[in-house]
Task: structure prediction
Amino acid sequence: MSNFWSSELGQLTGNAADAFTKTFKSIPSDTMAIAKIESMGYKEYNGEKYIQIDWLLMGGDFAGQHVFHKLYVFDRDGKRKHRFLNMLVLLYKLFEMQPESDMAPTDAELSKFKGKHAGIKIQETEPNEHGKVYNWVSEVYPAVDFKPATGKSIEPRAGVESAFSRNPRVTLDELESDLPF
Result:
């Protein structure tokens, strides 16, 4: 039986610093963290089915943040499908589990991964057209003897086109010289 008034992330203090929502930042590339699988199951987006793992970071600078790990095990691209199936096999081996059949795992089978701990390597995407950066899991390791470390954020690329780079700087003198009075 679990105690409602306990948390696996530490002691409950009731202090404002522990109770107020913090701003979540993108986790820097090459961050290594111990994480726990909160959930694992099938998702679908734009007609593409995949397995999604919700990893909860258990310590370090980003404790309590979630990183979603998508395994495109039904991908039409043979190379991508092969890599994602290998990641799924790696997870079965890492947690000393066996697939229940030669068919795709069921949601019930995937739910057995819940609560398992591992070391994960987190990466950042390049900024999209809106400047947003997302995290993804690139590697998974046994939690035993895993060394957490915070990585470095991706720096914006030099030469990014913007309104400032497309338009020359106009000085106040140039603006005043155009006034008819």
